[in-house]
Predict the structure.
Amino acid sequence: MPSAVLSAVQTTLTLALVGWMITGFTPMSGRWLRWKMFCRATFTIISLTGTTRDGRTEPVNVYDYLSPGSFILGPPQLQAILDHLTRSGRYERIDGAGRVLSARGEQRVEVRDGHVVL
């Protein structure tokens, strides 16, 4: 087989593989990343503000309260962290808004007075 034909076949196969990989990571209508790894994961992207007992407000980073290396946070885990922060007395109230990304697509999520509302 001549080297030009071999090079053309390799280039064609490489482009086909790259095209297949790109379409595997593009969003479908109502879906977030259709790659199999993301099918069961739930990610929460949220901005929270905590109000202390003396009335000061400060940003709350819920990821500081997860195990090291953890980044998958669904609404039940978020609620557990919010419960911990309010019961411990660190915050009187926590509010915020964001998005939940899962196999069901993207949903808005709000936190009102320490309660997760989908």
Remarks:
- Strands lie at 43-51, 57-60, 93-102, 105-112, 115-117.
